[in-house]
Amino acid sequence: MVTLNDVQFVEAARGFAQRMIRQSTDDTARLRWAFLEAVSRPPSDKEEAVILRALARERARYAADNERAVKVLSPGESPRDSTIPAAEHAAWMQVATLILNLSETVTRN
C-alpha cells in the first residue's frame, strides 16, 4: 500500500508520467519506453493491451473531472509541468503507478 499512497511514490509516479509524455506523442511508444526504463524489457502484447485500455479509461475519467485530475497531481514538493493538460498528466500518472507497482519493478531477480 505504501507504493500506492505514500507522497514520495505518488510524486515519483507523477514525474515518471511527465517523462513518458515528453518521450513521444504516440501512446504505444510512450508505454514501450516506460517499460524499458522500469523493467528493462518491452511490454508483452497482453500487457500493452491491458495498460492501453487502462489509459483510455483514466483519460475518460479525468477528462470528465478536471478538478479531480488537478487534485491527484498535487501531492509532493516538486512542481509539475503545467504545460501538460492535467487530465492527460493524471491519466499517465495512473499508468506510471501500474508500471512502478509491477513485481518486476519492485523486486529484481
Shape: globular
Main sheet overview: none
Total number of distinct structural domains: 1
Helix content: over 70%
Mean pLDDT: 92
> Could you spell the SSE succession in H and E letters?
HHHHHHH
DSSP, total strands:
0
Radius of gyration, taken over Cα atoms and rounded to an integer in Å: 13 Å
Give the count of helical stretches.
Answer: 7
Low-confidence stretches: none
End-to-end Cα distance: 22 Å
Strand content: under 5%
- Class by alpha and beta content: mainly alpha
Describe the fold and architecture.
With 109 residues, the protein is mainly α. It has one domain. Helices cover 73% and strands 0% of the residues. It is built from 7 helices and no strands. The protein starts with a helix and ends with a helix.
Topology:
Layout: H1 2-5, H2 7-23, H3 27-39, H4 45-64, H5 66-72, H6 86-100, H7 103-106
Helix pairs in contact: 2-3, 2-6, 3-6, 4-6, 5-6
Name some characteristics of this structure.
mainly alpha
Give the gist of this structure.
The protein has 109 residues and is mainly α. 73% of the residues lie in helices and 0% in strands.
